[in-house]
Design a protein that fits this description.
Blueprint lengths: L2 E6 L7 H18 L5 E6 L2 H11 L5 E4 L18 H6 L4 E4 L2 H6 L4 H13 L3 E6 L3 H5 L3 H9 L1 H8 L3 H11 E5 L13 H18 L7 E5 L7 H5 L6 E4 L6 H15 L1
Parallel strand pairs: 1-2, 1-8, 2-3, 3-4, 4-5, 5-6, 6-7, 7-8
Helix pairs in contact: 1-2, 5-8, 7-10, 8-9
The structure holds phosphoenolpyruvate.
Amino acid sequence: MQAWVIGNWKQNPATNHDAMALADALLSATAKEFDKKTCQLMVAPSCIHLATVSARLQDSSLLCAAQDISTHSASIGAYTGDCSAEQIADAGATWTLLGHSERRQYHKECNDILVQKMRNALTQDLGIVFCVGETQAQYDAKQTLDVLTEQLAVIPTLLQQAEQTADCADILAKRLIIAYEPVWAIGTGKVPTVAEVSATHEYIKQTVASFAAPLADINVLYGGSVNAANADNFAASPMINGALVGGAALNAESFLTIADAFARAKA
Ligand code: PEP
């Protein structure tokens, strides 16, 4: 089974020159030794670097994603500061992250907004990496599964709003990946145990499968302080289909070590 390892570059690096250098470092290493059949790599540069990075990666096995898209319109309009799904697709991205905890925290993204963003993404055939996860307080209060249930409720809402629910489920089966990212593990160096992540992923898979039959085999990635040293542990779990990587994705060597751990484990 193919794994997915996705680098979320967030608001990094500072210059286009450095973004291209990171893309080039990934390209030269993957061209030589990487087994792309067992692990699909994707990077999500910041919006300002998306077009140049995706152009550089165009003929490679690496995919390019946006980190977000506009809620308000899938195309054009008077939405200062936004980038639409159409513009993102035109810039060369084929996927977008949605619902990252930093978007939920700093931009107050709630389920209504995220359903609309998903609809917009699908109008442009963009794949969606939908991020979910609980805060430290919710984890401590043992509310993780309740939080995930509430966050995943965007999927049945989207299906209900679709003109053809069955067609929408078939499309989502091909274009939706869930990334489980406990907020308390993002950028902190703290990680849940592999057993905890595996049990949570099992719950996510069962929940998503209950929404529509075609969603029975959805990929669920883990994100939160994954690095070159701990990737093997996560990769060993059959419940963990890959990783969404922040900090460690800004260094080509550590990102590819993580990818290699998943490629070996899933081969
Ligand atoms: C993220 O923000 O998606 C993430 C997983 O970050 P980090 O790997 O730095 O914890």
